[in-house]
Amino acid sequence: MKLTGRTILITGGSAGIGLAFALKFIELGNLVIVTGRRQTVLDEVKARHPKLHTIQSDVADPAQIAALAAHVKANFPKLDVLMNNAGISLYKNLKSTTADLAGLTVELNVNAGGVMRMTSAFIDLLKANKGTLINVSSALAFVPLPCLPIYCATKAAIHSYTQSLRFQLEETGVEIIELMPPAVKTEMTSDLREDDGITLITTDELVKQSFESFKAGALEIRPGQSKQLAFMRRLAPNFINGQLWKASKKLVPAGANDSKPPRLSYT
Q1: DSSP code for 188
Q2: Which positions, given as ranges, span the membrane (predicted)?
Q3: Distances (CA, A) of 118 to 5, 8, 13, 53
């Protein structure tokens, strides 16, 4: 992946992983646009990092995506990198029925639906500019963390979708990259403890390892523990699934089919 002289759009870029990547891309001399659903947060980020371009947009809302695409195509026609990063994770108890059937698909709508809608909205621009698409899935695409059952299912969906994109776009000149982070030390993962057997890396380490892979031309990037989890999925799936269940069991909400977000939802 070419790392300089790009025009880059990152969804969910006002905090956490998205912001860390945005700042690194700016450091390398790129023009970077980040989106988020909360204008006040975007204003704070812009004040701290004036070189960032910020646009309020919610990947869960098709109308907002359409408006974002129109705005970017008019004002940033050289856009040649889209990083689909925005996501939400909810702890879920699936033991019985729920009255909130719509709530069951919130993560699907944001995580998987957002990636698919954003990709479709910008694919013509990426093709015209021979650009790069980066989809952020997760190590949990390989092995689920059972306290986050629907979140993990969305990441598996993104993994499969990205593979299909790579095939369908193979003759268009669009580079398709999948970034599969392990657990990263952000507000979203503050409930996870390393002594439970889940290794967390910092955003700085994630960015460092990811950019090394970008430079090497990797199309499927598995930083930190992601590589080990993918290997264990093949070698001993029952063992690794059991270990992750043991590590996450206490995070399942007490009430049947209750759901609760980690400390931070999506940006």
Answers
A1: G
A2: none
A3: 22, 13, 14, 18
**266 annotated active-site:** no
Instruction: State residue 265's pLDDT score.
Output: 39
CA distance 72 to 61: 17
Instruction: Specify whether the CB–CB gap between 165 and 176 falls below 8 A.
Output: yes
Q: How far apart are CA 228 and CA 154, in angstroms?
A: 20
Confidence (pTM): 0.89
pLDDT in tens, 78-104: 999 999 999 999 999 998 888 888 889
Domains of the chain, by residue range, sit at: 7-260
- For residues 7 and 264, which has the higher predicted lDDT (pLDDT)? 7
Ramachandran angles phi, psi of 131, nearest 5°? -90, -165
- CATH number assigned to the domain covering 7-260: 3.40.50.720
pLDDT at 28: 98
Which is the catalytic residue, given 91, 151, 161, 266? 151
Report the side by side order of strands in the sheet with 31-36.
53-56, 31-36, 7-10, 81-84, 132-136, 175-179, 220-221
